[in-house]
Amino acid sequence: MEDRLATGKLPLEVLASLLRCCPIRDPRVLVGPRVGEDAAVIDFGDRLLVAKSDPITFATDRIGWYAVHVNANDIATTGAAPRWLLITLLLPETTATQQMAEGIMNQVAEACRTLGVTVVGGHTEVSFGLDRPLVVGHMLGEVARDRLVQTGGAQVGDAVLLLGGVAVEGASLIARELSARARAAGVSEATLAEARGYLDDPGISVVRAAQVATGAARVHAMHDPTEGGVATALHELAWAAGAGIEVWEDTIPILPACARLCATLHADPLGLIASGALLAAVAPQDIPAVMAACRDAGIACAHIGEVRPQEAGAFLVSRGARRPLPRFDRDEIARLLE
User: Fold this and answer.
1) Count of CB atoms within 10 A of residue 292's CB?
2) Do 100 and 161 reside in the same domain of the chain?
3) Minimal CB count within 10 Å: which of 19, 181, 287, 319?
């Protein structure tokens, strides 16, 4: 009997096995599909084309807005500027209306305006077998050859910084998609309102944070935590670099409403989808420059760990105790949505 896969991202080992079926034969592909890498990179001469595709599967509220920012984030983690978007919109046959389509596309247009992104194509249809609309974005960006940043660029001895807070997207999703359950568990209206507001303030975009970090110092690697949360993203950062990692739990900035929601619903904030945060690996001597630039830009920045040799493994240190860094092959939001 075949083992069924759980809802959410494929486990890293399964993904790595699948990607071996698609070897890169085109020499212009500088970064192809790899575990932990946020986007593909293609040689276009003096500029590099960066490409990314991501669906929105958990949210139903403001999914067009989500789709733009989530895809733009992955472009930004390479040091590139997001430029062009293709959008695929699939509507459920039982509830699809013109007003639904217009609402989602207006969200896409609004988000694109805030980032200076142009919609250049895509696909729309009413499809059977869906119980809610699905949006898939395909974002293209560009970066100068000498400004490219890769997730796999982290070096042993690097400091791991976290820009932003945890978990903007996850807390907002709980407040928007699971509000009735949260209320029944005792979550206050004030906490739900605070968490809903995270979607706009501080927001799920890390485009500006990536620009601030790369403008302040030579960033060796960047990665944005999405499904599986910041803990899984740290594993991906280390995996991509062929390194180990040590993380200091007490230094990870958990947003107040997120902490309250997770405590009440018995969820781990480190495994909660975390768009809105950005991981960056920099040389230790560059920590002050990046932190100062973030402070001037009004962006929270914390030193949460260090890159270690691969044989050191991946560990989480909390109040002096050291344990393996957890990995969430299934995001906590997927578990809560059961």
Assistant:
1) 12
2) no
3) 319
Ramachandran angles phi, psi of 21, nearest 5°: -75, -10
Which residues span the domain enclosing 67?
12-147
| Ranges under pLDDT 50 in the chain | none
Spatial strand order of the sheet with 278-282 comes to 221-223, 278-282, 159-163, 301-308, 244-248, 314-318, 321-324
CATH of the domain at 19: 3.30.1330.10
Strand pairing category for 159-163 and 29-31: unpaired
Please indicate, yes or no, if residue 262 is contained in any of the structural domains: yes
Looking at residue 206, its pLDDT comes to 97
Residue among 261, 47, 236, 281 nearest 169 (CA):
261
| Residue 132: both structure tokens together | 């809610």
On whether residue 77 sits in a domain, the answer given is yes
d(CA 83, CA 113): 11
Range list of H helices, 46-185:
63-76, 98-115, 168-177, 179-184
